[in-house]
Amino acid sequence: MARNQVDWYRWLSGASLVLLVADLALNSIFQVFSHNTLLTLLIYIIQDVCLVFSLIILFLALFSTTLSQAGLIGELLQKFQWCILVAITYLGLSIGLHSWSLEQQWQKPELYIWTHGMVSFFIIQRVVGGLHYYLYKRTILQLSDKRFYSQLPDGSYK
């Protein structure tokens, strides 16, 4: 295996895990700063940017494999469809929850914003988040397998 491929695997896995840990940490600490809407907005923006970057890294990893270079993108998408769907769903649920909670805090700052609908949405977002963490990490570890990056035959037969 070439040195640049090892560096690529290391960078891919490291960046992906850093983004997952950042998302998990921001999910954990947002409630501490919920009294300050500006800090909450900043935390939400950083979290959503981390999620978008994690999707970009996932697609970079998918499209740098030998299968995608051979034109078998459908095979890759079929193999990793659950990770892609859950990642996009989690991003949508996170943006929705962040928008809704900030809207409630800004419109009625003196009222308790955690209605039954908000709590239900929060629970769904957290469950999908746990599924996202599992599938994303599993997919990144699968994509770091050297079989996805083996050399294509050059077409010259002897």
UniProtKB/TrEMBL annotation:
The chain crosses the membrane at residues 12-33, 39-62, 82-101, 113-136. It is found in: Cell projection, Cilium; Vacuole membrane. Signal peptide: none annotated. It is a multi-pass membrane protein. Keywords: Cell projection, Cilium, Cilium biogenesis/degradation, Glycoprotein, Membrane, Transmembrane, Transmembrane helix, Vacuole. The keyword ATP-binding does not apply. The keyword Transmembrane applies. One of its GO terms (cellular component) is vacuolar membrane. InterPro entries: TM_138. It holds the Pfam family TMEM138. GO terms for biological process: cell projection organization. Belongs to the TMEM138 family. Required for ciliogenesis. This is Transmembrane protein 138.
